[in-house]
Amino acid sequence: MSKVFKFGGASIKNPKAIYNLKEIVSSYKENIVIIVSAIDKTTNKLEHVWEVYVENKIDKAHEIAKEIIKFHESVVVDLKLNNNPKFLNLFNALSLELVEYIGSKTKQENNLSYSKIVSFGELWSTAIISYYLNQEGLENQWIDAREVVKTSNKHIDSKINWEETQRKINVDLRKDKTYVTQGFIGSNLDGETTTLGREGSDFSAAIFGWCMDAEEVVIWKDVDGLLNADPKRFNNTEILKNISFKEAIELSYLGASVIHPNTIKPLENKNISLSIRSFIQLDNPGSL
What we know:
Elements: E1 3-7, H1 15-26, E2 32-36, H2 42-54, H3 58-78, H4 85-103, H5 110-135, E3 141-142, E4 150-151, H6 162-172, E5 179-182, E6 185-188, E7 193-195, H7 200-211, E8 216-221, H8 245-253, H9 261-270, E9 273-278
Parallel strand pairs: 1-2, 1-8, 2-5, 3-5, 4-6, 8-9
Antiparallel strand pairs: 6-7
Helix pairs in contact: 2-3, 2-5, 3-4, 4-5, 6-7, 7-9, 8-9
């Protein structure tokens, strides 16, 4: 497995953007692991579902959840996946699971219910993208990251169990296949859903890269790369085309928000290249 690609919510915000993802992925001939965030602002909306859920406003939680499901159904129709029985079985099962979870009489600890509810954004997005890529002739397998990314028992900002995660990933994933899976989510050893915190999807890409000894991790963003200053504050900023891991970590601690230290450190430990590329300006080589 030579590369891990990560696509954030902005890069898959609508069917046109998902088509663009397909064009990017199809330009690479090697097998890759594709890590995907929730579509656009879905995580924020699911957080609102959770907020009213913990307030015991179940009808309101159901109402918001069904609006989110309806939005994803419109994407499904636009991508012509609504006639694919296998996809619909998966998508509908996920949607029903969320609705039933909200309506269950057994209330779970707040951090666990948070991770459980917000995880559906990544599960829906990756199911859509995996089946769409297969439909377009880009063969891949959908993986539930919770089956392989193993964490501590803390449900939010959970710590990675590196040994068990590496074992699971290398048992369940082959290096001669392409996979689509979720960023941001994992599970503890009891199988309960956990989340990885700030920039969790980028961190997920680093986790898979580290576990599989990837050649490169590529994070596709709506910026041209790492800049030498905040473009909102300074004119004439320049792209840092090549930068050391140490310098990248220093920049992140000084306020550079493009990349988080959690993402950089595992890759530095194995000297795995990290690229920041634009999903808009595909000819731009970005930052390495």
